[in-house]
Amino acid sequence: MATATGAPWTLTEGPAETGDKAEPGGHKCSGKASATSSTPPALIMVTYLLRRSDRDTPASMLDQVKRRTGDCTTELPSPPDGAGYATSCVDQQDPALASSTTTLLFEAGWISVQVSAQGSSVAAFASKTSQKAAISGLSLI
What we know:
By secondary structure, the chain is α+β, with helices and mostly antiparallel strands. The chain contains 3 helices and 6 strands. Strands 1-2-3-6-5-4 form a 6-stranded antiparallel sheet, sandwiched between helices. The longest helix is centred in the last third of the chain and has 14 residues, at 123-136. The radius of gyration is 15 Å and the shape is globular. The protein starts with a helix and ends in a 5-residue tail after the last helix.
């Protein structure tokens, strides 16, 4: 994900650290990026579900992502092919702190990426980075 988002991420927790495909079920990983000359300091949280054939149906996975996204119903303008659900929302806490969450649902599972960034004009960075990271993270599901 580091290359795809343009930020120097260091994954600190979770199965995505190794790059190995995880077992079916829910998973989380997190990371951080230090400030660079072109990016602010940021945190990333990736939550994803690999469909469990004995338990997860398209309807149950849609319900999971809708509960996860809550009030975020802003459709992603150009979702990846095959996405059954794709949203991305920015929460600007104050001018120097913003979070963005992008959630994508596919037949194989779903992924939700939250990026929180601190600094001036960070809403656009958080939004673009969460979208790029979610799309880049599709290889996890």
